[in-house]
Amino acid sequence: MQKQPTLTPARKDRRSGAALVMAALSLIVLVPMLGLAIDGATVYLRRNQMNAALDAAVLAAARSLNVGQTIDQQACSATSIGNQVFLADTGIVRGMTLDSVAQAPTCPAYTLPAGGLVFQVAQNSNQTRTVSGYLSADIPLVFMGMIHVQIAHINLTAMATRRDVDVMLVLDNGFPMSNVGGGANINPLSTMQSSAVMFVNLFANGRDHVGLVTFTGAPWVADAPLQTFLPQVPTDINAMGVNIHGSLYGAGSGGPNTSAALEAAYQQLQKLGNTGALNVIVLFTDGVPTGFSGNFGSFLASGQNLCTPGTQVNGVLWALYDGSGLGQGLTDPTAQSENDDPASRAAPACPGGDTLRPATLLTGMPSVDLFNSSTNGSYEPVALSSVTPANIIAASKNALDAAATTIRTDTTLKPVIFVISLKGNPGLQPDDNLLAKIANDPNSSYYQSGQTSGQYIPAPSTAQLQSAFTSIASQVLRLAAFN
Amino acid sequence: MRRKRSGSALVEFALVGTFLFIPILAGLVTVGISLVVSQQVGNLNSNAGQMFAGGIDFSQAANQALLGTLSGNLNLTTSGYGVVILSEIDGDGTTNTCSRQIVVGSGTGTSQFCTAPHSPATAAFSALNLGLMTDSSGNPSSVPTLQVGQRSFIAETFYYNPLYTWALAPHGTHSGIYNFAVF
Predict the structure, then answer these.
(1) Nearest partner of A363 among A317, A307, A324, judged by Cα
(2) Which chain B positions have a beta carbon within 8 Å of A37's beta carbon?
(3) What CA–CA distance (Å, rounded) separates B77 from B83?
(4) Potential cystine with A426: which of A45, A60, A183, A319 (Cβ 3.0-4.6 Å)?
């Protein structure tokens, strides 16, 4: 058995205190490592903060591309808002030093603030504009300074895209908007006009498209989508009136043909065919749809001679705006063409011209309207064989529901429908459930997650109308911009 | 004499461990936890705000569930310790107003920027009300002045967990981590 080596007392004395010495020596290595870890973590965190701020700034900049009458002014607006948002977001990032940058080339009129960013706006051909933001900054280091590394330099880039917006305004021009009949609202038409004009002015003239459809018993395409929509569209909005576009449709008695108006707007978006743009329909109405367009040729009662017996008879079947049983009729056998301005249209070659034709001339109603939207849909039960005001209204609601569903399920254009209603006018009050369904509002019990989702805003009175239009505009612009 | 020197290395090691290595280790753990939680809060806030600004409606239960998934172990539930407040700011050319607010997470809280109708606040988040970013009228002040029709979005995220209080305390007296972003 070998003898184990033993330490002499002298050697044990030399080892006494070695742990403290070794610990002190290890600090020479440990402290820089800790410092590196802390400085590294700080740089990592701040870089992420700056990156998030830059992302937010370019997104806000892209959303602001609508402000200004010219493309250059719009780029300046984007640069200004983007910088303001960036500076707001980086308020919590202390000690940062942003490198000085050259003046933004897209906006020579804009004075870049201290610590400001350069935003560059690129025009793309596919109905989009891209805002790029560049950041170059120095992050101060604490511990690394001991080895003469005072700063960490970072370069960041972020990009956001703003789709052009193609928007069709669909405005109810019916009799109740005149407020004749004792409604609670004062001057609803003029309030709606000023709100709609303000709405139009929130889009980028020269870049976005804005069109206008007005409707009563039938739609009128006042303006196909225009890229230079100022001042044309506001002028046409201000020209709306119950005695101008719509008088021949029985504006004083017939109900709104909302489904045909929606279809007319959709057809305009289809003609434009901007698949890269955000396609939007904004519908304003103050009542319930009480009319629809259809082919009534095969529903003439026996012995009746309406226009040319046995041939197709296209027209609008409508009930009174208040749903009463006194005024249902079949009017305008030649209506429904695009740009069908009722004020200039010749009287149909039918006995009685445009005079009201009692629905008793009909034995029933078609199961689809002229646009192939079902009048016998699931929204409201209807007896198509019985031409009564209640059934006409139910069929009109169903046609509107079906038309909106067709539009929302267009996977090419992906149109989004927004709806604003005004309450308090004479007649049947807007059907909130139906209009929320039309918009496919996420708050609606009918919400369909597989379809484009819009928003329904009911305005209890004219006092809320402007904010409703503004809110819709904000929402549209919000959807147009994305990272 | 030999008996007096025996065990001195152990004592030295205990002293060094107690006053040097354990504090360093505790510090590293503290910084590590803080870093991870800060990163989680920042990421959650950024993602939530970006989606909100992009049109995602977080008043919907399905979208709130999505946010809950994104939050990971921040436990963004009504019984958890995390909360996200999403605000919409509208402008009229002179004054910004808070038009809408959605609160997701541990009950509800008080935004640092503005208030809009929503459910009652919990004590945990109300305690964080620094009131730094509102003007005398209670409107958001650290947000660019917006024109009519322009809208800005603010995302705020706060995380408080009593289990981590000792680790999060260095970040402030409110024992939690707060992050905000204007979009």
Answers:
(1) A317
(2) 28, 31
(3) 8
(4) A183
Residue A211 to residues A171, A188, A222, A425, Cα–Cα distance (Å): 11, 21, 8, 26
Among A29, A63, A90, A156, pick the best mutation site for testing chain B contact (most B Cβ within 10 A): A63
In contact, A46 and A139? CB cutoff 8 Å: yes
Query: Confidence band (pLDDT; 50, 70, 90) for A97?
Result: low
Q: B168 to chain A nearest CA, in Å? A: 15
Does the ipTM surpass 0.85? Answer: no
Q: Which domains does chain A have, with CATH numbers?
A: 22-162 (no CATH), 165-482 (3.40.50.410)
**Which residue from A286, A475, A27 is spatially nearest to B55, judged by alpha carbons?**
A475
For B78, list phi and psi in degrees, rounded to 5. -65, -20
Task: Name which of A293, A292, A299 is nearest A361 in CA terms.
Answer: A299
Sign of CA dihedral A136, A141, A144, A146: positive
Sorted by sequence, the CB contacts under 8 Å of residue A266 that are 6+ apart come out as A168, A281, A403, A406, A407, A410, A415
**A443/B9 touch (CB, cutoff 8 Å), yes or no:** no
A431 SS3 class? coil
Cβ distance of A81 and B144 shorter than 8 Å: yes
Tell which residue, A298, A157, A444, has the closest CA to residue B57: A444
Question: What is the end-to-end Cα distance of chain B in Å, rounded?
Answer: 74
Kindly state the tokens that stand for B134.
Answer: 């509102």
Q: Alpha helix (H) ranges present in A278-419?
A: 389-408
Q: How many domains does chain B have?
A: 1
Name the nearest CA neighbour of A424 among A172, A179, A173: A179
Q: Is residue B114 part of a domain?
A: yes
Could you tell me the strand order of the sheet in which B96-105 lies?
B96-105, B82-91, B151-159, B177-182
Print the domain residue range for B120. Answer: 24-182
Cβ of A38 within 8 Å of Cβ of B31? The answer is: yes
The answer to whether residue B12 sits within a structural domain is: no
Tokens of A360: 């008793």
Dist CA A388 CA A383 (whole Å): 9
pLDDT tens readout for residues A309-332: 444 466 777 777 676 654 444 554
Measured CA distances, B36 to A42, A48, A301, B28 (Å): 12, 13, 78, 12
Instruction: Evaluate whether residue B128 is within a structural domain.
Output: yes
Strand blocks (E) in A77-141: 97-98, 118-123, 128-140
B19 domain residue, yes or no = no
